[in-house]
Structures are given as C-alpha cells and as structure tokens.
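Support request from a user on the community tier.

User writes: "When I paste my structure tokens into the form, the page sometimes reloads and wipes my input. The last time it worked, I copied everything first. Here is what I submitted, just in case something in the input itself triggers the reload:"
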C-alpha cells in the first residue's frame, strides 16, 4: 500500500484507540507503540506498527532507536526524512527535559541530573565523541561543546584547544565527557594520561578540571571519584 492511499478502517480505529490511551496515560504505551505513534505523525496514511517493530528489533530499545544516527535509520525500508525527523524530535525533547533539571543550577549540586542527561545523550551512540562542559565561577554551565568525533574505538582530546576555548569563554572550570561505544566505561591508560595532562595544563591557568566522565551504555565512570585526578 502506498503512502498516498487511505489507511484501512481497522488501522484508523487502532490509531484512535492508541491516541486515547496516550492522552489518558502516556506511560501505558509499550515502546513499539510510542514509536508507532511518532511515525504515524509523519506517515499518516500507513499502518506504522510493523515499521516500529522492525526499528526496535534493529536498534534494541526505544532510546537507542530515537538516538540512532539518521543514516542508520535511513537504511531501514520505509524510513524517509519525515519519519526520521519524528524520532529526532522525540530525542531532542527528551534531552531538553533532562537538561532543564540542571540548566540554571550549579552543576556540582545537580550531579545526578547531569549524569542522567549524559547517559541519555551519549550512551546509545555508536561513534566515540568527546564533549567539554565549560562552567563559570559558580559552577553553572555556560557552554557545552562537541570537540571531537572519532572512529568506533578512538577519539582525540586536544588539550591546547580545550584550554584556549576555556580562556575565550572566561570559564573557571571544565568537565570532560566521552563515550565508549563498546559499552565498557572503564578508563584506558590513555584516558588517564590525557586527563592528568589536561588537569595540569588547565590548572596552571587557574582553570579547574572537575572531572572526566566516561559513558558506556547506561553505565559510567568518574575519574575524579576513582581517585585518578
């Protein structure tokens, strides 16, 4: 059935019942039903339940599905730009809600909220990324920047560039975050060495490295709490 054809009445009835459940109790919907309804907003004339189930089988969970990169989603038959955008707006909304919990508060006093946001944002992605959180003298976030995106198993942290950017922003402190796509958050020897070199370089200019957080799936390691900084 093409997208230009009307969906069958049973699909219309199912979609109406799904909408009623969503309005009454959003948490009553299964993961595939959430994806199904998101896709229906972009593909209104098609039964999107089969496609939703294919996506979940391919990516493993709701969070991994909406966090998948557009090219990976586009490889699934039936996933065009509109359907991909529907999933991406769900991801963006979820991350914004998590970020709002610490946006206007000192990071160190809302640490759990920060970790929830980082796990949701970086845990599902399949490429290694490094980001830097720049903080003011009150430890409030003034800038969150992606500084490197590498291959599946490596990425670069450029100490000089991070310190230079901190000075440009008049940042008093920084937090480094990167993910391990393998799902294992244990720091490598290189992770430890780079962290110590960065802490030393930043410290000489009065900038504090609060932590280096490594995300692996839904787990994480804090090099500060491990006594490695």
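"...and here is what came back when it finally went through:"
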């Amino acid at each position: 059935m093409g997208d230009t054809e009307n969906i069958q009445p049973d699909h219309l009835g199912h979609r109406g019942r799904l909408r009623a459940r969503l309005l009454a109790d959003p948490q009553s919907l299964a993961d595939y039903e959430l994806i199904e309804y998101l896709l229906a907003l972009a593909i209104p004339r098609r039964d999107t339940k089969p496609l939703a189930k294919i996506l979940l089988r391919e990516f493993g969970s709701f969070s991994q599905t909406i966090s998948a990169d557009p090219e990976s989603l586009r490889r699934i038959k039936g996933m065009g730009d509109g359907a991909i955008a529907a999933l991406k707006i769900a991801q963006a909304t979820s991350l914004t809600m998590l970020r709002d919990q610490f946006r206007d508060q000192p990071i160190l006093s809302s640490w759990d909220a920060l970790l929830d946001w980082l796990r949701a944002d970086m845990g599902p992605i399949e490429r290694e990324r490094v980001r830097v959180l720049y903080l003011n003298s009150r430890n409030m976030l003034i800038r969150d920047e992606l500084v490197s995106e590498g291959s599946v198993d490596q990425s670069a942290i450029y100490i000089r560039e991070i310190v230079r950017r901190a000075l440009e922003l008049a940042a008093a402190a920084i937090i480094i975050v990167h993910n391990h796509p393998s799902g294992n958050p244990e720091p490598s020897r290189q992770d430890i060495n780079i962290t110590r070199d960065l802490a030393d370089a930043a410290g000489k200019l009065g900038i504090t490295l609060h932590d280096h957080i490594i995300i692996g799936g839904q787990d994480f390691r804090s090099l500060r709490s491990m006594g490695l900084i």
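Agent notes: The reload is a front-end session timeout and is unrelated to the input. The chain has nine helices and five strands. The CA atoms of residues 114 and 229 lie 20 Å apart. Escalated to web team.
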